[in-house]
């Protein structure tokens, strides 16, 4: 009787073992990443993203950067809720969107907050010709600042694209949202 010599197949076994370990690690990484990068309020995000012609994963990326999905978040400057809506933006949006009996406390309501945030992002997209960097800079630093920067040769050569952003916080914000967006696309894009 002849015995099969398995030593001849050790490289194949090693390769299979490495593939299994790699697969387990990838599954664990995806599991951990989905915990770190959740997609809470998915139905509201999809609803208002569709209504205002936005990528829902982009909106989720902003929410993660702004509040880490904490509906009760308040910034040091007083911005409120998931998308960190400033009081003045909330009041303006409530008038434009005919939100009856509006008050600032409504910004803690995820439905209202995401609706206003998506409406505002849509406005910024129109104002800045869908230039994502300008939109994000405006969302963080205000559209007035971005408009001034675009008119200044120090920050923009052609008046449409920012070559430099003078606010460090805004530069970091754009990097953070873009990183979030890349991770959300990896985890949730179907």
TrEMBL record:
InterPro entries associated with the record: Lysozyme-like_dom_sf (IPR023346), Transglyc_AS (IPR000189), Transglycosylase_SLT_dom_1 (IPR008258)
Positions of the Transglycosylase SLT domain: 44-154
Listed transmembrane segments: 12-37
Pfam families, per the entry: SLT (PF01464)
GO biological process, one term: peptidoglycan metabolic process
Gene3D superfamilies membership: 1.10.530.10
GO cellular component: membrane
UniProt keyword annotations, A-Z: Membrane, Transmembrane, Transmembrane helix
GO function terms (MF aspect): peptidoglycan lytic transglycosylase activity
Similarity-based family: Belongs to the transglycosylase Slt family.
Protein's name according to its UniProt entry: Soluble lytic murein transglycosylase
């Amino acid at each position: 009787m002849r015995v099969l010599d398995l030593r001849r197949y050790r490289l194949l076994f090693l390769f299979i073992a490495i593939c299994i370990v790699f697969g387990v690690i990838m599954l664990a990484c995806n599991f951990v990443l989905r915990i770190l990068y959740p997609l809470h309020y998915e139905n509201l995000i999809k609803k208002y993203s569709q209504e205002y012609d936005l990528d829902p994963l982009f909106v989720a990326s902003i929410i993660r950067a702004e509040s880490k999905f904490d509906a009760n978040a308040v910034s040091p400057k007083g911005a409120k809720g998931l998308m960190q809506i400033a009081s003045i933006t909330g009041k303006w949006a409530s008038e434009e969107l005919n939100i009856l009996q509006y008050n600032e406390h409504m910004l803690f309501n995820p439905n209202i907050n995401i609706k206003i945030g998506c409406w505002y992002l849509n406005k910024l997209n129109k104002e800045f010709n869908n230039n994502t960097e300008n939109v994000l800079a405006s969302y963080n630093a205000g559209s007035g600042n971005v408009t001034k920067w675009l008119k200044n040769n120090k920050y923009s050569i052609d008046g449409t694209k920012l070559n430099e952003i003078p606010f460090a916080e805004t530069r970091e914000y754009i990097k953070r949202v873009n990183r979030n967006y890349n991770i959300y696309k990896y985890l949730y894009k179907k």
